[in-house]
Design goal:
The chain is α/β, with parallel strands linked by helices. The chain contains 10 helices and 13 strands. Helices cover about 35% and strands about 25% of the residues. It has a 6-stranded parallel sheet with strand order 5-4-1-8-9-10, sandwiched between helices. It has a 4-stranded mixed sheet with strand order 3-2-6-7. A 3-stranded antiparallel sheet has the order 11-12-13, sandwiched between helices. Strand 4, helix 2 and strand 5 form a beta-alpha-beta unit. Helix 1 crosses helix 8, helix 8 packs antiparallel against helix 9 and helix 9 packs across helix 10. It is globular, with a radius of gyration of 18 Å.
Length: about 325
């Protein structure tokens, strides 16, 4: 277990980890085992970029759950908020690469994390953290998990924590009408709203990034980092708009790049950066993570991020 009982992590995330099998090129089709789940990826990224971070989730009593425990312990992620469900499994997914991008196939129905309930939240841990990160995926996987996210937000607010929220829209998990209603209800409860451009376009029906920003601000978003892949990031709040250019890299696999961005962003905010400074750093980290396979293995160390930022200045 990372961290001491007397020192809660500065950052917490809540959600579902999933073991990853990622297709790799070659004469014989192979799947490289890795780790995924947006909020687990977030935790690893935040930890690699210097923050104390903990995870709240549930695992199955299976080999995959054990591998996650070992991953988090290697990465220095606090596991006080991790519980076990003896009657459920740890989720898995496969990534297949096509000419049009990567395709996900999930085996998560009935997973331990999808059975999360508000009463499973560890007492006192959320109230003591500085930042809580939540995801639309966690709200989509079950009604009880959705309720748990809202309960966690209440606890974060009661303790004075800042909240970051990535809608991570997955229409295989819930219909657009419900997704839009839940996301727009959650957005004003967050201090930092972190959508991808693709998700934002689907949610708003708009194409132009600046029009999307205005749409979200009008519906209660406080500060937004609109992730645009290779085109960079548009950062906005009620007072200003800042465009951060993308980086030119050789993209191998974009799986988890948005999660890496989120984790690096909150780590840098926790370290005292402004939102624009943190977004510029996170933009570099996310670009680098696309240069390798998998969601976790390519998450870069800080020195690599500083190097790409220096070279692009």
């Amino acid at each position: 277990m990372a961290g001491s009982e007397a020192t809660p992590p500065a950052i917490l995330a809540l959600g579902e980890p999933m073991l990853e099998f990622n297709q790799t090129p070659g004469e014989q089709e192979r799947y490289l085992q890795g780790f995924g789940g947006d909020t687990s990826n977030f935790c690893v990224a935040a930890a690699r970029h210097g923050s104390s971070v903990g995870y709240i989730t549930r695992l199955g009593r299976d080999a995959f759950g054990q591998q996650f425990l070992e991953l988090w312990q290697r990465e220095g992620v606090d596991i006080r908020g991790v519980g076990f469900d003896p009657d459920a499994h740890t989720g898995i997914y496969f990534v297949t690469h096509t000419d049009t991008g990567h395709v996900f196939t999930y085996f998560r129905a009935g997973s331990a994390a999808s059975r999360l309930r508000p009463q499973d939240l560890p007492p006192g841990l959320i109230e003591a953290t500085r930042y809580l990160h939540v995801s639309g995926i966690s709200q989509a996987i079950s009604n009880s998990a959705c309720d748990t996210v809202f309960s966690a937000l209440e606890r974060a607010h009661s303790g004075g924590a800042k909240v970051s929220y990535d809608p991570n829209l997955r229409l295989k998990l819930w219909p657009l009408a419900r997704a839009k209603a839940i996301i727009e209800a959650t957005m004003p409860l967050a201090d930092y709203f972190l959508p991808s451009l693709e998700d934002a376009q689907t949610l708003t029906g708009l194409d132009d990034p600046r029009a999307i920003i205005e749409y979200f601000l009008a519906r209660g978003a406080k500060a937004i980092a609109l992730k645009q892949g290779g085109d960079g990031v548009l950062v906005a709040d009620s007072k200003e708009r800042t465009r951060i250019k993308g980086h030119t890299v050789t993209v191998v696999d974009a799986t988890g790049a948005g999660d890496c961005f989120d984790g690096a962003l909150i780590a840098r905010l926790c370290a005292g950066d402004t939102l624009v400074e943190a977004a510029r750093y996170a933009n570099g980290a996310a670009a680098l993570t696309t240069t390798g396979f998998g969601a976790v293995a390519p998450i870069p160390p800080p020195d690599a991020v500083h190097s790409i930022l220096k070279n692009s200045a």
